[in-house]
Amino acid sequence: MSEAVLPAVRSRAQASETLAAWALTLPAAIAYLLMLLLPTLATALLAFTDFELGLPGFNWIGLDNFTEMLGDRGFAQSLRNTLVYVGLVAPGSIAGALALALAIEAGSRGRTLFRAVFFLPVVSLTVAMAAAWQYLLHPTIGPLNALLREIGVSGPAWLSSSDTVLLSLAGIGIWENLGFNLVLFLAGLTAIPRELYAAAAVDGVPSAWERFRLVTWPLLGPTTLFVLTITMIRSVRVFDTVAVLTQGGPNKASAVLLYTMYEEGFTYFRIGYSAAITLVFLGIVLALMWLQTRVLDKRVHYA
C-alpha cells in the first residue's frame, strides 16, 4: 500500500471508530437528557412560577416562592427536622458500622453470615420494613413496649408523640444505613496491608486502640470520606419511612424536606412552590458534597 493511501485509510478508520463511539454513547446520552437534565431544567423554571395542577396557565412570579419560604413555618420546621435527622443518622450509622466492621474483621468465624444479616435492610423493601417497624413500635401491642413493661417502664407512643417520633425515625434510619456502611468499611479494612500491623507490633505499638489510631484509621480515610458523603445524601433524602409511618405528623414533628415538597406538590397541587423547595433541597445536597470534598478531602490520607 502506497504512502499516499495510508492517511486516507487512517482517516476512515478514525471516522469509523468515532461513529461507533457515538452510537454506543447515544442511548445513555438520550436517557440522561430525557430523564435527568430536562426534568431538572423544568423544575428550575417552575420554581419561579405560580403553577398549580388543574389551572389552565401560570404566571412568572420571580423569587416570590423563595420569599414565601422565609416566612413559612411549615418549611422551617421541615428543614429543622431534616437537619436533626441527618445529625442523628449520619454519625450513628457510620460509628456503628465501623465498630461492627472492626468486630467482624477481628473474628475468625461467621464473617459471611454477619455480612448477610447486617446487609439485609439494604436489599429489603422499605415499605415492608416500615410496616414491621410500625408493629414493633406500637404503643400497646408492640414488642418493644412489652419488653419495657416487663422491667417496670411505661413505654412512650414512639411514632405518635411529638417528643419521640423523630428519634424513632432516626433509629430506623440508622438501622437502614448500617448494613450498607458496614460492607464499605469491610472492603476498606480488607485493603489495608497486614504487614503494617506487623510493623506496628515490631515498633512497640502494644494496644489494639493504638493500632487502630495509628494504622487503621488513617488508611480508612478515603473509605470514611466516601461513606460520610453517601450517608449524608441518603439521610437528607429520607422520604419512604416518613410517608409510610407518620405522614409528617404529629403536628409536623416528623415532616422533612422531601415530604414537604411532596405534600405541597401532590396534596395541595402547588407545583411551583414544590419546585422551589426542590431547588433548596438540591442546594443543600450540593453544599454538603462541596463541604466534604473541599474540607475533609484535604485531611484524607491516600495510599
TrEMBL record:
Keywords: Cell membrane, Membrane, Transmembrane, Transmembrane helix, Transport. It holds the Pfam family BPD_transp_1. Coiled coil: none annotated. SUPFAM superfamilies: MetI-like (SSF161098). It is a multi-pass membrane protein. Residues 79-292 form the ABC transmembrane type-1 domain. It comes from the Bacteria. The chain crosses the membrane at residues 21-48, 83-104, 116-136, 165-193, 214-233, 271-291. It is found in: Cell membrane. PANTHER family: ABC TRANSPORTER PERMEASE PROTEIN, INNER MEMBRANE ABC TRANSPORTER PERMEASE PROTEIN YCJO. Belongs to the binding-protein-dependent transport system permease family. This is Carbohydrate ABC transporter permease. It comes from Teichococcus globiformis.
